Amino acid sequence: GGNSGSSDESSESDGVLSVVAAYSSVIEEPWDGVIHEALQEMADAGEITYKYIDGIGYASGAFERAVRQIAEEDKPAIIMGDSFGNEEAARKVALDYPDIAFVMGSGGGPAEPNFSVFDNWIHEPAYVSGILAGSLTKTNIIGIVGGIPVPEVNRIVNAFIAGAQSVNPKVEAKVAFINSWFDPAAAKEAALSQISAGADIMFAERAGVIEAAAEKGLLSFGNQMDQKSIAPQSVVTSNVWNMRPTVKYILNQVKAGSYTSQDLKDFSMVAKGGALLAEINTGVTGGIPAEVVAKAEEAMAAIKAGTLRVDINEAVPAGSVTK
Amino acid sequence: MIDVTEEIISSSLRIATPLALAALGELVTEKSGVLNLGVEGIMYGSAFVGIATAAQTGSLTAGLIAALVSGALAGLIFAFTTVTLGVNQHVAGLGMTLLMISLCNTANRIMFTADGGQVRVDPWQPLNFGGPIFSQYLLTYATFLVAVPFVWWLLWKSGLGLKIRAVGENPEAADVAGIGVAKTRYTAIIIGSLFMALAGAFITLAFVGTFTVNIINGRGWVALALVIFGRWTIGRLLIGAALFSLVNAGQLQLRLLPSFADVPFEILLALPFLAVIVGLAISGRNVPYPGAYLKPYKRL
Amino acid sequence: MKARFVLRASTPWWRGPLLIAAAALLTILISAIMIRWAGGAPIPAVRYMFISPLQSRFGFTESLLSATPLVFTGAAVAIAFRAGYWNIGAEGQLLAGTIGATWVGLHAESLPRIVGVTLILLAGMLFGALWALTPALLRTRLGIDEVVTTLLLNPVALLIITGLLNGPWRNSESGFPDSDVIADSTKLWIIWPNTRVHFGLALGIVIIGLCWWFVGKMSGGLKLRAVGLAPNAARIAGLPVERTLLTTALVSGGIAGLGGASEIAGVAHQLTTGISNNFGYTGVIVATLAALSFIGALLVALMFGVITVGSFSASRALEIPSQIGQLVQAVLLITVVSALVIQKYRIVWTTKKSEGRK
Amino acid sequence: MNSVEGVAIASRGGAPSIFLRNITKAFGETIALSDVSLDLRAGEVHALLGENGAGKTTLMKILYGLSQPDSGQIEADGVVLKIESPRDARAAGIGMVTQHFSLVKNMTVIENIALASAKTFAIDLAKVRAEIVAASARFGLDVPPDAVIASLPIALQQRVEILKALMSGCSYLILDEPTAVLGPNDIDSLLEVIRRLRSDAGIGIVLISHKMAEIEKVADRVSVLRRGQVVSSSLANGITSKELVTLMVGEQQSGAEQRQRSASPSQSPILVLESVGVSREAGGLSDISFTVRPGEILGIAGVSGNGQTELVNVLSGTTQIDSGTITVEGHQLGSNTPQSLMRAGVGILGEDRHASAVHALQVVENLILDCVEKFAGKFQLRRKEMLNHCESAITQFEIKANPKQAFGTLSGGNMQKVLLARLFSRKPKVAIISQPTRGLDVMATNYVRSLIAQASKQGTAVVLVSEDLDEILELADRVAVMYRGSVVGIVDHTAASRESIGELMAGIAK
Ligand SMILES: Nc1ncnc2c1ncn2[C@@H]1O[C@H](COP(=O)(O)OP(=O)(O)OP(=O)(O)O)[C@@H](O)[C@H]1O
Ligand SMILES: Nc1ncnc2c1ncn2[C@@H]1O[C@H](COP(=O)(O)OP(=O)(O)OP(=O)(O)O)[C@@H](O)[C@H]1O
Ligand SMILES: [Mg+2]
Ligand SMILES: [Mg+2]
User: Fold this and answer.
1) Predicted pLDDT at C7
2) Does residue D305 have its Cβ closer than 6 Å to ligand 2?
3) Are C176 and A148 in contact (CB under 8 A)?
């Protein structure tokens, strides 16, 4: 990785904090892309200096080396990144550098004194996407292609299915996992096989699925980012994860000197603006009936108001899921 | 619901396209006595160069041409090191693969992904002649209707093919017959690289319309396996490609069934490699390697 | 103009080093072009990549750590190549070693550490050797070329790991495709306090020493070299060519597998799908750049360790892609290997044929 | 010596039309050709003579573009020819049949011939076939067009080679030792073909041969090469065979004393082969039986390609037998591996000295390669003892070499001596010696032959395989003749003559 951002090298001159990120995957992969986007925006606004290293992967010792190098050589105020699959390494380094705030995407809990965790808690917008999908399907078969069936993926997929079945109990969801975080070609092939099995709406938990839906003239739902631009005629909406609230909160904490390790889950949920539903794209092929849009917006409002709670279900949703 | 078998066949053809193209390229190369382990890298390079050019010029055709040029260039470098210099073919091939992958990843970062974006083009769409089986990309039709007969004609019917085979079997004899061994091997390597480049371009320009790290994902190694599985004949090579693609497409369908949720499909994906090893073991001492396989030739 | 390569009668001693230096320079030049293109400054980049890791204790020890798996795979490839056994399968053998090691690591609770460590290393070695067995048998029994068979088993090993990690070995806490952490009793000792440098490095150096001494000094080593240089001559002299090849292949696989175990027990402490960052393939480069000498392999492995650490530093400091580190290694391979060949030849330029006729 | 231009008159052919001028060529430190000039005429058979290694092949390879001279040039009709590849040579009307055939073994005759003229795209095998049939008739060279080369006997393969060259339209044809691989009958028909080509087609032929009889039969002009230099070039009828031999080897005549053969040896045989057979894929031997007594030399004669190489491979253990038995000193071998043979006391000198040793290793290392264990210390090889052993071998066998020198840098004669030293220092009970003097000069040849004689005197049983019939007649007590993979007759030295053995070699049963 490299970056643009401020040219200011020092760690804390005139209150500009330095943040260095370590990504296991590459920044074009949406999960890390969301974090990168938020940090880059802060850097462009002059609020932080930002550097990153990406594509570190899961080779033995690589992630720990990258994070240690950052801690040793850049001495930043904050190290962010995703420690999924490199959990042990990240936590070990954090213990050795108690003065640096470690803020990591993680499936585990926070660790004293300086290891905070966040995650993409976008099951709420996923539920609402599901409502749209359940209303729009004609074959009552929905195709879902996920990365690897880990709890954080499962809960999004399950929420999507629950949402669909809440408005249309006949919905059958076909779920396939490509067992990779980023393999658009495999994801597309899996999506095409679901389409051939009758799916007429596709949920693109991973990259590659929207392309399949677009090729077959079907509707699709994006994940992590607003992915409308990939295929404006196909993408109804996306479950968007927004890291800005998390980043802002952490910056304030560190600036104020009151940073402690914590679970930042709330900042990635709808209530605090960390999760949202992208603007519903009524321009897709065949359009979207107004009452369906209304239903979705109603559900979203209810979630914001706290009157609708979306269940968290982290069980593996395998094969075909019917109610 | 659409007929599943029909869809599996359709999907197999799609999966088989880059494999068959790359394997044909490797076949032409190996028939000249040269093992090109750079196949994975050449595919990677053309996949990237193809889409990068298409994105910059807005023309998929320009992308395809650029991909072919990149393939030819990579082939040229490989030919220079192995034919002219006589470097170990396996070392040069692995080097080529590592070079192309690291070069493209670096260029991709510099050109397209520095701010988290990704290169995208509107890819070629399948041409629909009715039914899922006949809804395929132009390149898929071209592969099976043009490239396969062409390579068959090239290797077994044309004068160049005769030269390639002679050079691969007995370079000394070919040399004495007045055939430029180096020239013929360069030609075979470059023709082979062009097919590998087509295979790479198919993945980005037709199939996914984007480029990501690890886009080739071992397809080059599968192509290599297919050539040996096919005992250096086109018919058997195609049978191998068909079997592998059917297994691959079939497992994607099987994954949809609840009872198969826990089946380790990785074993199925390992099949082509294992099939080659078993096949070699069964043929025993009768593996029809080209006579000059892996041997550099130098006149004194 | 047409170039012709003519074998030199004799090569002055300085030509080799000179050409290799030229190759290194060419590599740096090509890298510099890429660095410029990426918007970085080439000279500091080269300094970050090759020198700065050596200037701090942290950088140095991390370089040692990165070099450790390459010491094993470099030695594994070098010893096989010396015997004329073209083992391109160190990657798969290392991966097989990680499987064996993880299996022990997950089942070896409450053993004394010395026992646990011995077991995990033995398992890695055994699995690596077993992974090398089939191609070796095919070669020695049926004369089937090992280049392709060893190569094609690499993706198979990776698929088995993926299968294990998506299935029975999936992490019991996170559900991620990485195994649980191995038992403490099987973790290797840290040999340089307060760094990550572990016992595996010492083991690797011992292996290098053993290989060097065996191949150079022992009777078995003389046989191995003879088989590698001229198998028919060795056969005529009554040397057991097939047995030597088989043994060497298994030893080579065992060393690569040991490298896998060293990574699991020394650093990673768990199996991941990406556990090997092409360590086996890089081993082929390491051995080739070292011209198959063991001490050379150790030095090249260390250099690659430095480049690995240095390219991360350069990447962040100069904001250039970290992928350039790998690029440097690949370009270095091609230029140096070409230089090693070219040094044996004299290039004669001849004019076009038509000009030749008077 | 006659000057090259001096004898142009009265020649059968016309004026010289291809000149090789001042050709020099060195391989590393070996000077293969130094300042060689030669001229070739159309319609004339020009014989090229010289010992092994004199440079004949090298010179012709240069003419045919397979090798480039370090200096010198080739001219035709006053024009300098730039021959950089066989393609250039053929364009200049020069064709060549190399010492080792240049045919693609698993292609058909048609494909092999089409190769030479193959264009890039269209290729019409039917047309090539018709051309082959026509050319066969025209030159009197019958070949089966659809047969795969590997299935043809050597003589037919050679015919394909000649036809291939002729069909490319050459007016000069180089034949490098074409008769070495043929039996007497095939030799006669080849010579007939050569005469016809010269007289009917007006083709200029360069014939390389070691056999005076053939030269006498067909040559119009004879040139002799010695150590890379032309020492004579003259009309054939102006010079006798004896003079030619002197020209070839120099004044120091072969002074080898005749071996004293023991009167009928009484001891029982030490090596017994009974009905030994080897499958076709492994070379094809059938029903080979013979015995050798201690102190006896059994010569194995035969036209090359009749199973001698395979027999040596069987006795060195590199080819496994499929039937029959091998018994050494009364003990039947379970299987004929190199190890079991060596343990039984069988030693071997392979036919190709370059293939029998490791060029890159030192002389001292090569010398102990077959008994490495003897020098294995607990922790490392005992270098000192190895060197001592080597020094004494160097002295005893008069080897001109330094123990630490790389074997590949030795001259052929010295290589052969090192390998003989390796063989005899094991004190083998049976020595299998194959082509011991191939490529050696006269002095080295005599020395090697005396070593073999000496070993047999000391009780070693020797199996001597040689293509050189004179060598066998000089050394052997009995001669076994091989034909098509079996032994067709064993003749006592008292009854052995060139003629009797020649008939057996040609497969003409008595
Ligand atoms: N490729 C080579 N490398 C090194 N030396 C060579 C090579 N080819 C030939 N020589 C040497 O050049 C000399 C001439 O060899 P050449 O083959 O021309 O002899 P020749 O007269 O044809 O012998 P023969 O009667 O055995 O065919 C020999 O000393 C030979 O060893
Ligand atoms: N096939 C070969 N491979 C490698 N080197 C060869 C080969 N043939 C010949 N040479 C080299 O050519 C040189 C001469 O070899 P050759 O066998 O002709 O002996 P020679 O010089 O004729 O021997 P002598 O001087 O005893 O007659 C040697 O240095 C040898 O290394
Ligand atoms: Mg000689
Ligand atoms: Mg010769």
Assistant:
1) 65
2) no
3) yes
DSSP β-ladder status, A141-146 and A319-321: unpaired
Give, as one character, the DSSP assignment of residue D357.
Answer: S
Test A59 with C181 for CB contact under 8 angstroms: no
| In chain C, where the domains are located | 69-293
Residue B258 pLDDT: 67
Neighbours of ion ligand 4 (CB under 5 A): D 57
Most confident of A318-322, C134-138, D301-305: C134-138
CATH number for region B2-114+139-283: 1.10.3470.10
What one-letter code names the amino acid at D58? Answer: T
Q: Where is A52: in which H helix or E strand?
A: strand A48-53
Task: Give me the mean pLDDT over the D405-434 stretch.
Answer: 89
Distance CA D28, CA A161 (A): 78
Equal fold, D1-93+169-253 vs D268-345+428-510 = yes
Q: Would you call the peptide bond into A113 cis, given omega within 30 degrees of 0 as the criterion?
A: yes
**Does D56 contact ligand 1 (Cβ within 6 A)?**
yes
Q: Which of residues 203-262 of C touch B (CB under 8 A)?
A: none
Residue D21 β-bridge partners? D73
D268-345+428-510: what fold? Rossmann fold (3.40.50)
Instruction: State chain C's maximal CA–CA distance in angstroms.
Output: 89
Residue with token string 């160049």: B160
Helix (H) or strand (E) holding D200: helix D184-201
Atom of ligand 1 nearest to the CA of D99: 27
Contact A28 B118 (CB under 8 A): yes
Report the SS3 class of residue B160.
helix
Q: How is chain D split into domains, by residue range?
A: 1-93+169-253, 100-168, 268-345+428-510, 356-427
Counting as low any pLDDT under 50, the low residues of chain B are 1
Give counts: helices (H), strands (E), chain D: 17, 20
Q: Which two tokens stand for residue D202?
A: 């007006």
Is B217's CB within 8 Å of A185's CB?
Answer: yes
Task: Give contacts of A54 with chain C, Cβ < 8 Å.
Answer: 322
* Domain spanning D1-93+169-253, CATH class: alpha beta
Report the 10 Å Cβ neighbour count for C51.
12
A314, A322, A301, A127: which is closest to A221 by C-alpha?
A127
Whether the predicted interface score ipTM is above 0.90: no
The structure tokens listed for D504 are 């057996």
Give me ligand 4 centre to Cα B192, in Å: 38
Distance from the C304 Cα atom to the nearest Cα atom in chain B, whole angstroms: 14
* Contact criterion met (CB below 8 Å) for D83 and D105: no
Domain locations along chain B: 2-114+139-283
Mean pLDDT of chain D: 86
Do B162 and D85 make contact, defined as CB atoms within 8 angstroms? Answer: no
Quick one: pLDDT at residue C355?
A: 36
- In angstroms, the first-to-last Cα distance of chain D is 46
Q: A197 contacts in B (CB within 8 Å)?
A: 1-2, 4, 7, 253, 256
Any bridge partners for residue D20, and if so which?
D38, D74
DSSP state of D375: G
